[in-house]
């Protein structure tokens, strides 16, 4: 049971038996970064860069982007910020990309796919991120690409990001294909971050914006949990290769902000959780109320359940 009186989040979190968990904030603007830092977040696991440019007729310049990213890095001095490259298309079209109408935008040219046609824009964005890192060396700037489906895409992105001077490069795991290819994806990148909002949408073939399909679009669906497990297993295999550094797995979808599911995710072997800042205190308290062994038992119970409700019930029976 989690106590009702909630103390402010102080920046560190651990299970009852002392297994440390990195809790980070999802942000969309520089103002969000300041608010999240004030709320105790020591870093950001997801900066959605496209949010700053949704109303633009012209692409933002490298200088403007550098200033924006440096401002966000400054808010988290001494920690890390995961900068996500533009996730445009689908529900977030960027006018300056002149998107073509699509029959199925969620299955269309979105996320990293837009960069295949606008490589210059991606190069400019990566250059701005690298310059921001130089301006704020006290914060680690990690960079990641959204909506990756193949190992080849991950390798292509990693090549561009490293050539721009960025040291820590990752991709989001938002498609079942990427989850099932995590071991090979992680031969090219340093970390992955599970976007469970999209992973649920693509696993269950249910539009995340569709109210009638909300029950399908649920990260408690055991099929989604099994893909998270597959991603963690892939990271373990990639980390075990001779000479390889340890590959980390984060979650930055809404699933991380559910205090019960957060413990299941840690039980599955996820390293860090990034969420809206308002959820940090409740998730930290939930973690402190359970041991790692209990989290693992809850994960096993949820993975083998027959449905989303059954998975939630099984996990809460253990925790
Ligand atoms: C996700 O898909 O879970 C995610 C974090 O990215 P976004 O919600 O911005 O698509
Ligand atoms: Mg997403």
Automatic annotation (TrEMBL):
Cellular compartments annotated: Cytoplasm
Domain of life: Bacteria
Family in the record: Belongs to the PEP-utilizing enzyme family.
Subunit annotation: Homodimer. The dihydroxyacetone kinase complex is composed of a homodimer of DhaM, a homodimer of DhaK and the subunit DhaL.
Purpose: General (non sugar-specific) component of the phosphoenolpyruvate-dependent sugar phosphotransferase system (sugar PTS). This major carbohydrate active-transport system catalyzes the phosphorylation of incoming sugar substrates concomitantly with their translocation across the cell membrane. The phosphoryl group from phosphoenolpyruvate (PEP) is transferred to the phosphoryl carrier protein HPr by enzyme I. Phospho-HPr then transfers it to the PTS EIIA domain. Component of the dihydroxyacetone kinase complex, which is responsible for the phosphoenolpyruvate (PEP)-dependent phosphorylation of dihydroxyacetone. DhaM serves as the phosphoryl donor. Is phosphorylated by phosphoenolpyruvate in an EI- and HPr-dependent reaction, and a phosphorelay system on histidine residues finally leads to phosphoryl transfer to DhaL and dihydroxyacetone.
Designated name of the protein: Phosphocarrier protein HPr
Originating species: Galactobacter valiniphilus
Gene encoding the protein: ptsP
Residues of the full protein shown: 524 to 842 of 842
